[in-house]
Amino acid sequence: MRERGALSRSPSTGVGAAMLWIMRYRLFGRTGLRVSELLLGTMTLRSEDVARRVLDVYADAGGNFLDTASAYGESEEVLGAAMRRRDRFVVATKYTLSRDERDPNASGNHRKNLVLSLERSLRRLRTDYVDVLWVHLWDRHTPAEETMRALDDVVRAGKVLYVGVSDAPAWFVARANTLAEWRDWTAFSGLQVPYNLLRRDVERELLPMAAGMGLTVAAWAPLAAGKLSGGTERAGQLSQAEETAAWAVRSVAEELGATPAQVALAWVRLSGALPLVGARTPEQVADCLGEVGLPPEAVARLEAAAPFERGFPADFIAECEASPFAFGEAVIRA
């Protein structure tokens, strides 16, 4: 499904010649909620004035997904103050991380922390509901049954519309959603993971699990904390492997008339994941808005510069599927 949002840009944005960004939208998991292909992380926002300008650039381009967290503190309050059209946005926050390190029940995925963290986020965001509530981090001490039932309760109460999970093992996400389906509770619709050209380990289990269960993937750190965006402040701070990958991104960007950030984000989108970008300024948002088509040769060069092996069982299964020994001589195209 596609809808359109446009942003006309000029050289004053620092991203080259004027171009038209056509924002596309995806359904959020197996729901009818439409979310833009570029998600905006708001953790680094500290000034209400700057936050409003950042949101204006993003919204004018058609962006609609704002991501924050209870643990982000001041930035969650800044976002609440800066939003002028709250219902126009899909507002997402997270809970799990500690609200008070001296209180043993002020963290975790149990019901008490969920309720108190959510209430605090609602106050900070100046709203009576959030569109998405993410479990911020897997908590090995809280049973999946408790977490999923508690999440379902806040959905039924109208304080949360959809739920997702961040930074958790694939087996836990699969088990939690299976429990939810069996018991008619609200299941996770989204998965949030770190994913970029330098960090591809989620391709082993998490991305295939998300695809199999119909979860939208939000990729945080898609620019590898600035290592792939060509920032000069990173000079001398990269390892040899990181510099090789960053050079490949810059090289492809120059050939395509794009910026390194646009190329790095385009690579993430090839997997079907939605980049979750953090921006401190309107210019940084604008830099991420250019649409770049990566030719197969460019993709091969980028991935050759950052070699990765999926390991067992993914590579072993792929080898078996390519051999008639496993499934016979018939070729199955799925």
UniProtKB/TrEMBL annotation:
Annotated Pfam families: Aldo_ket_red
Protein's organism: Lentzea xinjiangensis
Stated name of the protein: Predicted oxidoreductase
Keywords (A to Z) from UniProt: Oxidoreductase
Gene3D superfamilies per UniProt: NADP-dependent oxidoreductase domain (3.20.20.100)
GO CC term (a single one): cytosol
Span of domain NADP-dependent oxidoreductase: 38-305
One GO molecular-function entry: oxidoreductase activity
SUPFAM superfamilies: NAD(P)-linked oxidoreductase (SSF51430)
